[in-house]
Amino acid sequence: MLSDTTKIEITPADTVTLCALEEACFEVTDTTLWDCIQWVDAGGAIVGTGGELCVTPPGFGLYWYVAQVDSTLRCVIPDTAYVKVVPDSLSATVEGPDKVCEGDSICLAAAVGPDPTMAMVTWTDETGAVLGTGLELCVTPGPGMHTYTATADNGCAVASGSKTVKVLSDTTKIEIAPSDTLLCALGEACFEVTDTMLWDCIQWVDAGGTIVGTGGELCVTPPGFGLYWYVAQVDSTLRCVIPDTAYVKVVPDSLSVTVDGPDKGMRRGQHLPGGCRRYGPHHGDGDLDGRDGAQCWARYLSCASRRYLACTPTPATADNGCASGFGQQNRQSAVGHDKDRDHAI
Question: What pLDDT shows up at residue 339?
């Protein structure tokens, strides 16, 4: 007589793992039950009878077989045998962001082939510490470089994949070299972002907001003379990165300078042409040569009263970094020796 707690026991009790499509065998330990045992697959079909069952699963996957008795022995509790058929080779890669900002979560996914459901995945960091299991991992580390490894094990093969992620400080700033460029003719100017880890997400934008390049380097040829600027920035997903700007100034390689304005000034009296400073008799007689080479008299007397003439050159120098130019204008003014003595006009 069977107890109402009689339970069928199958051996092996643990899941049988097959590394190829081959046969797996199971046995009911209580031989007194063998003559009434039925083996039923997951679909409910009877695949065998008696105390033993040998099966060859049709492909990779998890299969199970229930050892039971007919309904006349309702007191007997069935048992289940499991077979897992897995490949003898695996591949594993890790997908996720290359860079995140400080405070943002890093979410990674393990891609395991040929069948991710047939493997156990364990996550570790660069120190070897276990961070979790399963096909996905989310962590929030501090600034710096972090490497995460997913190791897949299906009982027949082991494979691993890694991902290195840079966590950017919330004060990260793009640096461009050179920051300023001077061109003495219409030609090409090139710039580079110094941090190569940012190269894959750099956009170059001109003064009008148009994207003119991507990546860590930019070479441009400005269309004409003037000042141009280009901003190196990243997309909005990296909100912590501060952009930088490169400037290009294009100037001609020659200059000319002219000075415009009145030639003469008078308080009263007369003036004479000349290109130097002329002095009254208290400076002594004699001729002096000015910038324009004109000779100056040492003394000049006007009709109404004595007036002395000063001829003062007004120079102007221009420099654009590629060329320089010089020009001047000579301005003549009278100097008196009356009650307005030595007042220059």
Answer: 46
Q: Which fold has domain 91-168?
A: Immunoglobulin-like (2.60.40)
Query: Which residues lie closer than 8 Å to 183 by C-beta, 6 or more apart?
Result: 189, 222, 248, 249, 250, 251
Tell me the whole-structure pTM to 2 decimals. 0.61
Q: Based on DSSP, count helices (H) and strands (E) in the chain, helices before strands.
A: 0, 29
3-state helix, strand and coil shares in percent for the chain, rounded to the nearest 5: 5, 50, 45
Task: Report d(CA 105, CA 122) in Å as an integer.
Answer: 19
Give SS3 for 225.
coil
Q: What is the CATH number of domain 176-250?
A: 2.60.40
Single-letter amino acid code for the residue at 64: W
Classified as helix, coil or strand, 281 is: helix
| pLDDT band per the 50, 70, 90 thresholds, residue 311 | low
For 112-133, the pLDDT digits (tens) are 999 888 899 999 999 999 999 9
DSSP letters of 187-204?
Answer: --EEEEES-GGGGGGEEE
